[in-house]
Specification:
65% helix, 327 residues, single chain, 3-stranded mixed β-sheet, 2 domains, Alpha-Beta Plaits, Alpha-lytic protease prodomain-like, mainly alpha, 9 helices
Length: 327
């Protein structure tokens, strides 16, 4: 099964679970009248809408590239995550309004036992599905699936807090606790929405992912070959689950096309072992120059102009620079 198809299947599960849990939380709110449970139900409304948007974006991003979209349709996942982040933020603002209104006009809460049990069960299912979505999304480099999973997990954390508040309310009878709990977790929801929006904008703007580049650089350092004299001008761009890699590699100047291509094939196999098949490489090969000898560890070179002096460890900074490395 392809990575795209796996993503879509997991997102379908997210949609189904979202609908079922939303219905459960509406029942819990109906029998209790708790504004804190309404908080949970409203966030589940966003879950349902966002899961459908995520499913649409994953289906679209799985389409092969065409003349109008030479890099594929993966960018739609960033738009999907942006919409989801916006919806989460709006839900948080609505919850704040409802909580303040309930503080001004408190009302009795009924059947808390059943409400707590229903919401607790929903939280457990939410976390399990969210964990699965994040795990699969990270494996397949899908921002839309990661966003869906993190949303479900954050929903679980807020639900746990809400349950704690409802238990306190049950044993104390303090009606204001219901509204205060709702207010606290409304701000948690808004912060979650901000983080998803931030990652979405970063993807749309092709912002450098320092964590991903760092992981890539460390992996290359561990598997570096003696003929790879230098690597620089690295750029990694995300298109949904596809990673586009651009960089320059310095090889011995006397390599013919077949020898140079063999080195690139070896590098591509290494990268795909680590990051999966959804990787595209665009590599510009440079021939080494006189100053390259001082950082070249190749011992069987018959045209060396200078002795080896030092090994240049690749870092996020020097591998991203558009300059050949020197001793």
């Amino acid at each position: 099964m392809t990575a795209s198809r796996e993503n879509i299947n997991v997102q379908k599960l997210v949609v189904i679970v979202g609908l079922v849990l939303f219905a459960i939380k509406i029942v819990a709110w109906h029998i209790t009248g708790s504004v804190a449970i309404l908080t949970d139900a409203l966030e589940s409304t966003v879950n349902v809408v966002a899961s459908f948007i995520g499913l649409y974006s994953l289906n679209l991003s799985a389409k092969p590239r065409d003349v109008e979209h030479p890099y594929g349709h993966g960018k739609v996942e960033f738009i999907s995550a942006g919409i989801e982040g916006t919806l989460i933020t709006v839900a948080g603002l609505v919850i704040i309004y409802e909580a303040i209104n309930n503080l001004r006009h408190p009302h009795e809460i009924g059947q808390l036992d059943y409400g707590i049990l229903l919401v607790a069960g929903a939280a457990a299912v939410n976390f399990a599905v969210g964990y699965l979505a994040v795990k699969r999304g990270r494996k397949n480099k899908s921002l839309a699936l990661i966003a869906s999973g993190k949303h479900l997990q954050s929903d679980t954390y807020t639900t746990i807090g809400i349950i704690a508040g409802l238990i306190l309310l049950k044993f104390t009878g303090w009606l204001w606790v219901d509204s205060v709990v709702a207010l606290i977790f409304a701000f948690v929801i808004i912060f979650t929405g901000y983080k998803i929006l931030r990652s979405s904008i970063a993807g749309i703007m092709d912002e450098a992912d320092k964590e991903l580049i760092g992981e890539f650089v460390n992996y290359l350092n561990e598997h570096r070959q003696v003929n790879w004299i230098d690597l620089h001008n690295l750029r990694i761009i995300k298109y949904g689950s596809v990673l586009h890699l651009d960089f320059h590699m310095t090889l011995p100047w006397y390599f013919n096309l077949h020898e140079a291509h063999r080195e690139l094939d070896q590098l591509e196999r290494l990268i795909k072992e680590k990051f999966g098949d959804s990787v595209e490489m665009f590599v510009h090969t440079d021939g080494c120059l006189d100053f390259s000898c001082k950082i070249c560890q190749k011992t069987d070179c018959h045209v060396r102009q200078a002795d080896f002096e030092t090994k240049i460890e690749w870092t996020v900074e020097n591998i991203s620079s558009n300059e050949k490395h020197r001793a």
